[in-house]
């Protein structure tokens, strides 16, 4: 299998697995225990906290471990809603992940107001519209993802933070797709909250982290034994935390050693081969502000559901949009928000690369896409490369 669905999940890095295994085998003590074995585990957790903090250029005490991005997002929204009830408004975009959209529905169901800021046709946030929508004394939180999970489009987070803070609003960013892929610095881009998930950066599923700026208050979503500095109750997922720390350390190393440029060259080569054979291919998202790992494109009049079957048979793992759609191939809300027609959305595929992919895999996958697309068009009675209307 050639795995090109890293935005859905990534393979666990062997070094990450090796780091966590001792905490499944011999170092199994409860980190809250006062004896030596417990203290050893506690030290390992704090080391992992430092590794995650370093990836974000954050302080050690600003990192809280969670079960993943979804929990982190829900915790932020619930905390802000509870601590600033006099500010009823939450601002999001129409291109957010389902975790933000569903949490926003709960915010609204509890009597709050949810406002959606529009995005441009390239998927980037309309900053003029955001400036007009943020209301001092009313807007409590602006919650916008740093990198889109379907198109890879990067948000202008520094400008978003500037606008929100000028109006007295807090900022949360869903950085699940951005963490480990681009440089994130919570000092130069001073968001108040940032959520990330381990399984998008070569750690296991079920572990994540929430950055909470030391500038803001926080009310925990989960209460219990006072773990995580009383910000997230429950006995810590020690092996997962160790794995996330190691994954964060490795991600920082790969960002520094030029792996980003290598992956961009793979993605660009992949797209170039397909476009050369199928010039009607249309790539979604801003060409200059897009994750180097993500390729979302439409092949007009070629049904994505059929393509997925053919590509699966060819040993290519990809998706027709967000994997969180649980197999339902309805029109993507992300593409809809950028003005893509339902017809074109139904002809859209998403490929996402990870650091273990090779040039040979990228080229083989491109040829498989071309061959599968030609099969689909021939079955529809079209000449290869000719659009049927």
**What's the helix-strand series?**
EHHHEHEHEHEHEEEHHHEEHEHHEH
Q: Main sheet?
A: 7 strands, mixed
Number of strands: 12
Give me the Rg, rounded: 22 Å
Q: Could you list the spans in which at least 5 consecutive residues all have pLDDT below 50?
A: 383-389
Number of helices: 14
Q: In percent, how much strand structure appears in the residues?
A: 5-15%
Strand order of the largest sheet: 2-8-7-6-5-3-4
Distance between the termini: 34 Å
How would you describe this protein?
- This protein has a seven-stranded mixed beta sheet with strand order 2-8-7-6-5-3-4, sandwiched between helices.
- It is built from 14 helices and twelve strands.
- With 389 residues, the chain is α/β, with parallel strands linked by helices.
- Helix 1 runs antiparallel to helix 9 and helix 11 packs across helix 14.
- The C terminus is likely disordered.
Q: Can you describe this structure in just a few lines?
A:
The chain is α/β, with parallel strands linked by helices.
């Amino acid at each position: 299998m050639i795995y090109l669905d890293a935005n859905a999940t990534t393979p666990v890095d062997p070094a990450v697995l090796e780091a966590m295994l001792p905490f499944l085998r011999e170092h199994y003590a409860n980190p809250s225990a006062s004896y030596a074995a417990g203290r050893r585990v506690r030290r390992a957790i704090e080391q992992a906290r430092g590794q995650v903090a370093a990836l974000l250029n954050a302080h050690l005490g600003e990192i809280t471990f969670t079960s993943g991005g979804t929990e982190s997002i829900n915790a932020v929204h619930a905390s802000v809603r509870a601590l600033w009830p006099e500010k009823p408004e939450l601002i999001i975009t129409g291109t957010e992940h389902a975790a933000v959209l569903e949490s926003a529905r709960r915010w609204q169901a509890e009597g709050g107001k949810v406002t959606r800021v529009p995005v441009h046709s390239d998927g980037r946030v309309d900053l003029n519209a955001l400036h007009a929508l943020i209301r001092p004394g009313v807007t409590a939180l602006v919650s916008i993802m740093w990198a889109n999970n379907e198109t890879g489009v990067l948000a202008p987070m520094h400008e978003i933070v500037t606008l929100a803070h000028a109006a007295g609003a807090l900022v949360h960013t869903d950085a699940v797709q951005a963490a480990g892929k681009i440089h994130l610095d919570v000092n130069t881009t001073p968001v108040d909250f940032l959520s990330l998930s381990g399984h998008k950066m070569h750690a296991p599923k079920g572990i994540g982290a929430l950055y909470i700026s030391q500038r803001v208050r926080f009310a925990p979503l989960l209460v219990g034994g006072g773990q995580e500095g009383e910000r997230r109750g429950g006995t810590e997922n020690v092996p997962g935390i160790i794995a996330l720390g190691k994954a964060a350390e490795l991600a920082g190393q790969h960002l520094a050693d030029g792996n980003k440029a290598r992956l961009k060259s793979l993605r660009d080569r992949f797209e170039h081969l397909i476009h050369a054979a199928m010039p009607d291919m249309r790539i979604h998202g801003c060409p200059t502000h897009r994750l180097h790992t993500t390729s979302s494109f439409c092949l007009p009049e070629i049904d994505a559901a059929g393509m997925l079957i053919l590509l699966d048979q060819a040993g290519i793992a990809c998706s027709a949009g967000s994997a969180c759609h649980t197999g339902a191939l309805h029109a993507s809300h992300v593409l809809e928000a950028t003005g893509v027609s339902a017809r074109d959305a139904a002809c859209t595929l998403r490929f996402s690369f990870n650091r273990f992919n090779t040039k040979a895999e990228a080229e083989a996958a491109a040829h498989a896409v071309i061959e599968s697309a030609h099969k689909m068009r021939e079955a529809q009675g079209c000449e290869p490369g000719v659009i049927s209307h």
